[in-house]
Amino acid sequence: MLLPYLLLGAILFVLGLIGFVTRRNLIIMFLCTEMMFQGIILNLVAFGRYPLKGAPTFDGQVFALFLIAVAAAEAALALALVVLLYRYQGTLDANAYRMLKDE
Amino acid sequence: MTDPTIKRIETVLRKPAVIFGAGAAILLLVTALLALAFPLYKPLLSSQFSFSMIVLAVMLVLILSATALCILFERKIAGFTQDRYGPNRVGFWGLLQPVADGLKFLLKEDIIPRHVDKPLFLLAPALALAASLLGFAIIPWAGQVRWPWMPPDAPPLSTQVANLNVGFLYLLAVGSLSVYGVVLAGYASNNKYAFYGGMRAAAQMISYELPLGLGLLVVLLVSGTLQLDQIVQQQAATGVWNIFLHPIAFFLVLVSALAEANRAPFDLPEAEQELVGGYHTEYSAMKFAMFFLGEYAHMITSSALIVALFFGGWHFWGLPGPENVTWWAMLIKLAVYLTKVALFIALFMLVRWTLPRFRFDQLMRVAWQSLVPIGVALLAATAALTYLGWQRNVWASLAANLLLLAVLLRSAARSKRPVTARQEDLPEIDVRPTT
Amino acid sequence: MRDDDIIVLKEPELTPAERLYLPQILDGLKTTLRHMFDLQRRHAVVHQYPEQTREDTGELRTANYHGVHRLNKDPDGRVACVACFMCSTACPAHCIHIEAGESPWPDREKYPVQFDIDELRCIYCGLCEEACPVDAIELTPLYELVSCTREELILDKEKLLQIYEETKGIKPRRNPPVTDYGLTGTQGLDVAEPNMKRKV
Amino acid sequence: MPTLLIAILTLGAVGLFLAMPGGRADTRRVGWVVLAAAGAVLLALLLRLVPGADPRGLFAGFALVAVFAALRVITHGKPVYSALYFILLIFAVTGLLVLLEATFLSMALVIIYAGAILVTYVFVIMLAQQSRPAPYDVKSREPVWGCLAGFLLLILLARQIELFLVPAQRTPLPAPIAEAPGTIEAVGVPLLTEYVVAIQIIGLLLLAALVGAIAIARRRPTTRAESEGDE
């Protein structure tokens, strides 16, 4: 039962990655990182439930909880940043913030 | 100039004998049908799964009709508190008003303005209603029951749709979804008033989920379980309702429940005076009715939750306790539970017609500057009590609550302004005479 | 306004208990509960409208009320209107429709063959009343204006005259019709204005 | 089997590329058809791989919803819809977690993600709403390279997972977790015993994020009142 979960987790992760690379809206980019988190959460919990050896443990779920906490922290910071950037430039286009790279 | 036949129908319907007679007749008919069909569904009653499905169906019908009745009830209470009679035209005492309202909603023109985001516009009311109805799944309506034809050693069935082991976490999860109906309605309407309503709803819901969660966590610490039926059984077994242990937690949950249900004094998302109806400005007919029903269904869920958590659910002193699992005890318990819920709904409505609406900055300040700190302090106190093993000791809990209240009073006395005072960054009003 | 007209009100200081707002909330709930169960006050205040109507003891000022229109009759029982179109011209809502015809009576040239008022369109401003040179159209204090169809509320001449019959006592016609120049009936014709005589 | 998997994933990459925002409407439709075909074959493959366990159909349903929602998140032109599809994705993942007997985690996921994070996202999307579709939403950036790189990675991952699991697949399925699956107790005990340092660090991280968010949002004095509203 582990294989399909791992595959699904990988698909979600990669879709999030593709979205992060191709979309230009900052908010959607952050949504895509959250999507990658979903893939990882699935992976962790599946590994905890169907470990390769030994009895199932709850460690996977514990790690997933940590992951959710990190995601919440990321969302709080990212959204605050996005709002601030939007106030400065009036756009959410990631390309509009290239000047961050130059200086 | 009115049609005489309409007038005649009206006078007939206003006779109490007609209304109550018809009601009794329908009740008798339903009972007779149920009795006749008894052999058909008797096997269904014996297994937990099918019994849960039956509970689901019965409760869904009951609650949807109760929401309709709630609207009448609310208007009656509004009338009474304002020295009026409330609706009393359609049927005796206005009892057929819900039917008239329903008919009106059905027959109104269903307008979808051209400028709206159509899929979301259609989705929003459905979400609002569905999210409020989902919560009913885990309310333990009447404890446990063992039918007379079941063997005496069979495990009793629980009158709950789903006995989740995550308990009221599910309620929190479902409750947090109810914001989407409002926010999406505000967004999809493409109208600035609706938009402001949606924004307010989003900020308000997020803010008030925290004190709600903190209040629930206090109960969790006291009872040590998340399952609502076990929480109720604990209270029934000792006869000590959680409200006696933690009145402040109850107050937190009550206030947050009012805010989560968008009820006055927290009804800013739909404030008629400022936002011409807020998020449901653009809605009409049945879609508007769904928001309406959703709000009342949400109110019933909140009341049921509060009753289960703080008021002992179906328990009342002197009435059958948890060990009595006969069917008549179940009916009594159900009646007790529903009475308590009805009382709470009445309280919600009374509060609405008593208190003025908050201003938005006041609303935020109440949540973040008073309710959240109180909740955290209470949680810490309860955690300390739990560590000492006194979490179900009435005197210890009450002492902790009183101590907290004293600290609150002290800090309130120290602070120069009340939490709901004027916005801080407004200039001071100074109208002193110049000479 | 002088400075000493200004009354400076200081916000009252709240006691610590009041800062918690709970006593106030309970107090408010007490008030609402008191009103909820105060049956006597409710009976005294509320009028069950279609069955009970308020008696006018003077404070209702029904004479000033702008309700349904009526078409007055002159003392001979004829319609007082002379179909001059002043009212329909003055009407901001364009709700008066008049068709004039040759008057069968000697004292006026025209009379309304048809006189319709769309009560659903009317805004009850009373400008028609003021515009009327012969005080033929008036707004009565009747406010019960209901029907099951829209067509029923387009009142024609007969209905308007009927309303006059019904409201004669409630709102007496204040002035005698101007057409008569202060006289009643047709006997004043011989002293009337030259052009009227000429018509005869 | 590996060639089949690679073929499916390539098909998926092509479909995704066609369905990316920016193309013409009919191209995107073609892309969806391709994606649907790839998804169907992948699903059949997954179902064949899975031994006849009981919740197979449920898994398939949730997985399908999850992948569809994820695709919509990255292809939809309107940010609000993306956020809503993300909520759908959360629900699908919640269902999968329930299948994995992690009920507490599933509820936590709904409360935290759907109840708090996504509401904040929707809130910000509404704040930054444009009157008409923004140019940066209707046109994607480097869709070719994005899809290519992503699916290359996915193919590698899938291959690795497969290689890794083939020996493990022979072992019998572990029994369901003890008596009370996924309760708070079962998750909480390791959380507060083995991982107590980690949870402290996470708490610090959250605090830092909170302080940081407030500090960032307070940058301009006019925006202070709004920052109190969000997380």
Describe the structure.
The complex is a heterotetramer of chains A (103), B (435), C (200) and D (231). Chain A is mainly alpha-helical and 103 residues long. Chain A is built from four helices and no strands. Chain A has one domain: Helix Hairpins (Orthogonal Bundle). In chain A, 78% of the residues lie in helices and 0% in strands. In chain A, α2 (26-49) runs antiparallel to α3. The model of chain A has no long low-confidence stretch (mean pLDDT 82). Chain B is mainly alpha-helical and 435 residues long. Chain B has two domains: 9-107, no CATH class; 111-413, no CATH class. Chain B has 16 helices and two strands. Chain B starts with a helix and ends in a 21-residue tail after the last helix. The model of chain B has no long low-confidence stretch (mean pLDDT 82). Chain D has a single domain (2-178), classed as NADH-ubiquinone/plastoquinone oxidoreductase chain 6, subunit NuoJ (Four Helix Bundle (Hemerythrin (Met), subunit A), Up-down Bundle), CATH 1.20.120.1200. In chain D, α1 packs antiparallel against α7 (143-169), α2 (25-49) packs antiparallel against α3 and α3 runs antiparallel to α4. Chain D is globular, with a radius of gyration of 21 Å. Residues 221-227 of chain D have low confidence and may be disordered. Chain D contains ten helices and no strands. In chain D, 76% of the residues lie in helices and 0% in strands. Chains in contact: A-D, B-C, B-D. At the A-D interface, α1, α2 and α3 of A face α3, α4, α5, α6 and α7 of D.
Structural class of chain A: mainly alpha
In DSSP terms (H or I, runs of 4 or more residues), the helix count of chain A works out at 4
CATH fold annotation of chain A: Helix Hairpins
CATH architecture of chain A: Orthogonal Bundle
Structural class of chain B: mainly alpha
Low-confidence stretches of chain A: none
Could you state the order of secondary-structure elements of chain B as H and E? HHHHHHEEHHHHHHHHHH
Mean pLDDT of chain A: 82
Shape category of chain A: elongated
Number of β-strand runs of chain B: 2
Radius of gyration of chain B: 24 Å
Radius of gyration of chain A: 17 Å
Assembly type: heterotetramer
What is the share of helical residues of chain B?
55-70%
* Tally of contiguous helical segments of chain B: 16
Considering the chains and any ligands shown, give keywords for the structure.
heterotetramer, C: 200 residues, alpha+beta, Alpha-Beta Plaits, three-stranded antiparallel beta sheet, two-stranded antiparallel ribbon, 7 helices, disordered C terminus, D: 231 residues, Four Helix Bundle (Hemerythrin (Met), subunit A), 76% helix, globular
Helix/strand layout:
The complex is a heterotetramer of chains A (103), B (435), C (200) and D (231).
Chain A: H1 2-22, H2 26-49, H3 59-89, H4 99-102
Helix pairs in contact in A: 1-2, 2-3
Chain C: H1 16-19, H2 22-36, H3 39-45, E1 69-71, H4 86-90, E2 96-102, E3 110-118, H5 127-131, E4 137-139, E5 154-155, H6 157-167, H7 194-199
Antiparallel strand pairs in C: 1-4, 2-3, 3-5
Chain D: H1 2-19, H2 25-49, H3 56-75, H4 79-99, H5 103-127, H6 135-138, H7 143-169, H8 184-192, H9 196-217, H10 224-227
